[in-house]
Specification:
The chain is an alpha/beta fold. The chain has helices at residues 2-11, 24-32, 40-49, 61-70, 86-89, 93-102, 116-121, 131-140, 151-161, 180-189, 203-206, 215-222, 238-244, 276-285, 294-311; strands at residues 14-19, 36-38, 54-58, 75-78, 107-111, 124-126, 145-148, 165-167, 194-197, 211-212, 228-232, 249-252. It is built from 15 helices and 12 strands. Helix 3 runs parallel beside helix 4 and helix 8 packs across helix 9. It binds iron/sulfur cluster. Iron/sulfur cluster is lined by residues 21, 60, 85-87, 113, 172-174, 234, 268, 270-271.
Length: 312
């Protein structure tokens, strides 16, 4: 199956871009075939800069949409259109538009984990790695912020920037489960461990972190390092962390507490819907294509390009 996928990617001039949270098999396949394993914005940017005619996205629906927004002339396929995200699902465009209308004096800043329509409505699209610097910049310009959809990331940015922000009440079902009390107990068992936390996690968990950062920052934190790391993000990231570290010991942060049937089940069910069987069918039959209204694409490009120009 893997060989057939490799041949089809070549034959159809297609590139596979994978998120850090999909299976190790898909991450390796993307890298071995000239694609990339990365975060959602970098996946889309890589697809745009490649000479491929088809971008195959192993991730969730909003990642396919972001790739299509940056490459409207290319065919963008996802492995399963039902693979979505609680942040995307929890921020429907009608309710969000109402929220924006009620707060029309505020600059709309949205996280990358949103639908194309929400991105089109926004002034800025940000990633977890860029959110704090963008909001600090906007604060310096005297702007008040309307933030969506992740309340935990929003709270983290608000606390660290002192910006005037109102927050949409969304959350990631994976990160929200991390438990501070169990994490404290785990740290007592491993006193030398460094705690790495993604900012989509609850405040009490973030407060215990040695480093709060994006997926890329969490991977960079273990590069060439040995020692013990407790990691509060989706465990799909362990594959890249193991590759870049120097035999570091990686432990999942507890997400269900010690009375539950497992101590940590930090893996996104929607990311787990991606697999090689679906990849083969998708590329072979060119199914699960992402189509977006061109007017939405133009508006969403505007808010994403603001971030790309800012990070330059
Ligand atoms: S891990 Fe969380 S933020 Fe990422 S796709 Fe799953 S639900 Fe969405």
């Amino acid at each position: 199956m893997i060989e057939e996928i490799k041949q089809l990617l070549k034959q159809k001039n297609a590139v596979l871009v994978a998120h850090y949270y999909v299976s190790p098999e898909l991450q390796d396949l993307a890298e071995e075939t000239g694609g990339i394993t990365s975060d959602s914005l970098e996946m889309a940017r890589f697809g745009k800069n490649s000479s491929a005619d088809i971008i195959v996205v192993a991730g969730v629906k909003f990642m396919g949409e972001t790739a299509k927004i940056l490459s409207p002339e290319k065919k963008v396929l996802v492995l399963d259109k039902n693979a979505t995200c609680s942040l995307d699902e929890g921020c429907p465009i009608d309710e969000f538009s109402k929220f924006c209308d009620e707060n029309s004096n505020r600059t709309i800043v949205v996280y990358a984990n949103t639908s194309a329509e929400i991105k089109a409505k926004a002034d800025w699209v940000v990633t977890s790695g860029s959110a704090l610097s963008v909001v600090k910049h906007l604060k310096q310009q005297g702007e008040k912020i309307l933030w969506a959809p992740d309340k935990h990331l929003g709270y983290y940015v608000k606390t660290n920037s002192n910006a005037d922000m109102i927050l949409w009440d969304g959350h990631c079902v994976v990160h929200e489960k991390f438990k501070a009390d169990s994490l404290k107990q785990l740290k007592q068992k491993h006193p030398s461990a460094t705690i790495l936390v993604h900012p989509e996690s609850p405040k009490a968990v973030i407060e215990l972190a040695d480093l709060v950062g994006s997926t890329t920052a969490i991977i960079d934190a273990v590069r060439n390092k040995s020692g013990i790391f407790i990691v509060a993000t989706d465990n799909g990231i362990f594959h890249q962390m193991q590759k870049v570290s120097n035999n570091a010991t990686l432990i999942e942060a507890p997400s269900r507490g010690y009375a539950a049937d497992c101590e940590s089940c930090a893996h996104c069910d929607w990311m787990a819907m991606n697999n090689t069987e679906k990849l083969l069918l998708t590329i072979k039959n060119e199914i699960n294509e992402i189509n977006i209204d061109p007017k939405i694409i133009t508006k969403a490009q505007h808010s994403i390009n603001r971030l790309l120009n800012f990070t330059k």
